[in-house]
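Prompt: I keep going back and forth on a fold encoding question. Comparing notes only helps if you start from a blank page. Show me how you would write down a chain together with its backbone fold. Please set it down just below, with no commentary around it:
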Amino acid sequence: MHKGYCMVKDNSRQYTETENGTKVKSLEKALTVLECFDSLTPELGIAQIAEKLQLNKSNVHNIISTFEKKGYLERDKESKRYRLGLKLLEYTYIINKNLSYQNTAYDIISYVAKELSFITYFAVPQKDRIFYLNSAYPPGKTVLSSYRIIIGETAPYYCTSLGKAMLAFMDKSDIGRILKLPRKRFTENTIVDEKLLHAELKKIYECGYSIDNGEHETGIKCMGVPILSRSGNVVGAISISGAALNFDDNEIRRYLQVLTTATRELKNLF
């Protein structure tokens, strides 16, 4: 080393990595704020979000203000609470347009709706809930607003026929994780006991279909069948729904035949 030359440690990379890590954490924090909004809590105040996420109110206020400015959130003038903004609909349109299997899937579930005269739903697994991708209605029948499912709506696994059909065919680790999540009793028929749910899932796995006997909505019956990939992984489920759904053996066999045929076609889309 030349006399008078001093080695200086370059900390610029360390600073950059620390800075990037901070930015990622800030982004994650902001996204958790957006994830607080769902179909059960479509409007929230800053204090509610701060309490739910255990964050400082001023921190939440800054995040909310940014999202509001960009159009991702909007503030109700009367309630003073926030809700998801119209900007997010742009992404819904883009996603829906790029789901190449949507049109084919709709044709398949429309056939089921027409053949069985019940509303038919198509959903896929998404983290800790099911995600509705499409629905089809029997031709010529008036559909109550409570039956209408909007693309992008989510629901729990444990109390819906779609959710239970998918959950029963998942890995044991996923089943265990999902059943450890908090469970709400939606109706008097909702199964919330973990042991009873495990028994229910075992029965579904053995027979190949699930039943929702008013467990998510009072008076609404559903029957679901999983969609499995060629390798046996759960990729989705379809269900029929209606107050007049008949669960006697003959009708179940008829429903199952049509639903199973549809799932064979749907699995080719994944």
Residues 31 and 63 are 9 Å apart (CA to CA). The chain has nine helices and eight strands. The beta strands are 73-75, 82-84, 119-126, 129-136, 154-155, 210-213, 221-228, 234-242.
